[in-house]
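Re: Re: token formats

Sure, here are both.
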Amino acid sequence: MKKLKRNGFTLIEALLALFITSLVSLLGCMLMRCALHFAHMDVDTQNQFAVLQLRRELAQSNDLKIESDCLSYILNHEKKVLYFDKHRIVKSPGYEIYMEQIDEAIFYKKEDGYYVWFKKKNKTYDFELY
């Protein structure tokens, strides 16, 4: 009696391979779409994200002070300072960058709020932080 040789794949194996391939392709397309969306993100949207991050951080802090165009505060019993350096708004200790490609920036207090004013690509922005 001859043994049957099976060459090729069964229908279920072929359908499973097609399903996995289409799933990976779909995820790849979604990833590319998301990457293109962030690459072409509006400058104003990036500024709003940075301001939201700053607001969240300052909402959790206390003892805010303006010292020579820098904003200092206490967060988790540690003194932090926001300042403008090398076309960036950064936080120390360390060097955490919140915004980049800024021409100039100033932190100031007006009435009961703390504000940041900055100039980016010949446009000026003024946001309340706290």
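Second one below.
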Amino acid sequence: MENISVVVCVYSGDEAGEFETSLNSIVSQTHPPDELLIVEDGPLTSALNETLEHIESTVEVPVCRVRHAENRGHGAARRTGIDNANHELVAIHDADDIAVPERLEWSLEKLKATDADLVGGYIEEFDTDPNEPYAVREVPCEPEEIREMAKLRSPVNHTTVLANREAILKAGSYRPVGQMEDYELWARMLVNDCKFVNIPRVLAKVRAGDDLYSRRGGLDHVREEWRLQRHFATVGFVSSPRAGMNFIVRSIPKLLPNKLREGMYTTLFRQEGKAQ
């Protein structure tokens, strides 16, 4: 089990230069993927189409493009990607993030050594220069630590995931919900007794800044949090009292002004600078 499909979802709001840099970081891996599966979530800009055409014509990795007639959101796009992937392992990669060159090599080695269903790792966050990160998001690495953290917040950095496709499908795959479709999927996989591990290494560099944290706030996110915690209680991932407490704790940052929310996230959940 070594063949890997990398699933990348793109929509008209993505920036073509960042998208090209992101794709190049995946096709130039020390362990190249066996398929680059691009889900076009609605009509793309001419610049994004030109980027895709250039990638298709210049890289050795097979490129498969799947199109949605209209924008359907991240959950639906990733579900389409998983459904159409041609290999037994799938790696998730965001259209504006940069994978470190050894990401797939390290992840595949870890997955085989631990017989895990899903492998992730750390990320570095940066504003403009990927070589000058301002924070690192570390995650627990052992299965039981991951399972415990998952009861309060996501224990996996989404853009670092390499997973068994069949395990994702058995858990119901991504669902076209408003937000947090990845966290919801991890919970369903953990309820199915899937084994998660994380690598204590940075696997991706992620564009952050004000826009990242502004997308995590507002009443829509609070309503989505209520839906998510009710779902967790329904499937038996957490108890109803725990779900209620989670809702309160996790909703507070969503109602804060953006600068305060950014400060809370970076202070409580990030480490400054590069990973050691």
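The beta strands are 4-10, 35-41, 63-68, 89-94, 98-99, 118-126, 135-137, 162-164, 196-207, 271-272. The two ends are 31 Å apart (CA to CA).
- S.
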